[in-house]
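Reviewer 2 asked us to include a model.

Predict the structure of this chain.
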Amino acid sequence: MLSRLLAPLAALAFALAAWPAAAFDTQARAAFVLDQGTGTVLLAKDADTPLPPASMSKLMTLYVAFEAIRDGRLTLDERLPVSEHAMSYGGSTMFLDTTDRVRVEDLLRGIIVLSGNDACAVIAEALSPDGTEAGFARFMTRRAREMGMENSTFLNSNGWPAAGQRMSVRDLAILADRLISDFPEFYPLFAETEYAFDGRAPANTSNRNPLLSLDIGADGLKTGHTQEAGYGLVGSAKQGDRRVIFVITGLDTQGQRAREAEAIVNWSFRHFVEKTIARADLPIAQAPVWMGANPTVGLVPPEDYSALLPVLGSDSLSAEVVYTGPVSAPVTKGDRLGELVIAPEGLPERRLPLVAATDVAAGGFVVRVSTVANLLLERFVQPPEGTM
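Predicted model (structure tokens):
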């Protein structure tokens, strides 16, 4: 049967805040804020609505390029040709032309720092299954689905306005999380504030991310703007051991984008605190064991668990231990037996695995006889159904 136990975690670890979190009042059309270490969603506004992504979709081109480098299909020193199609792009560019053969590393910096539309097209044509940017966009869409990005459809490599090209802010946060986690060797590129490629574009040498110079831990990732999309930013900042990833889009001006992004970072770090709520060496509950050498087995997390909680609040956090019991012997240490369910007010519920703290062998003859005898005794003394 499914068993539930209330676990007062303050008694297991220490006092934790549990005051309802006040949602950030954002002016963005859509917004998403993720605490990366705990996986806690701090803010979700129209998180799954497909919207025009503008240049923020360049992050998907970068992810596919990083995968190709990791897999050996592309190298940083490799020089790629520039097609007439790539050269034809306007907007933010590296001012490439068809006489160029450009190093992959230069193209990556051109995309990240300069937001080069032409650089994206060069990478796209090199990695496309059919040699075209459209073919690369179809590949990106399939790859995005594999990564859990259900509301992303790409029609080009750079976010140039195209009917039907869409990404949700949740998908952009998933992508940012994967870029940071999967490619730490490339992530420092996103913090570069300037890149002057070949002296061609003195007016386009600076990273447009307004947070990089503010000394608030910001180190990425990508701005975006078109008339249809408004001003947007996929950002990340790290303070101490905590990293926050956020996405905002649909703002009216560059200044509004900068102010909103800074305010979100400050809110995320100032109003939430990460606490250890359960330790791997401390049983949270005891589950009864059927026909075991021991009558119970401790339930512990496989690793120390942390939770992000509002700074202000009460002195305890209640949780629920859920398991199907009694547990049948034998039990092996580390067997998954249940879940710890926590739901701080104002934040999403989290369900964390619980495992057996020790081995429990099957009981011998005496245990089996005693168990059966007790079961028969319970049935004998229980009044017939329907009587009192």
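The chain has two domains: 2-15+276-381, 46-270. The CA atoms of residues 50 and 168 lie 4 Å apart. We have added this to the supplementary material.
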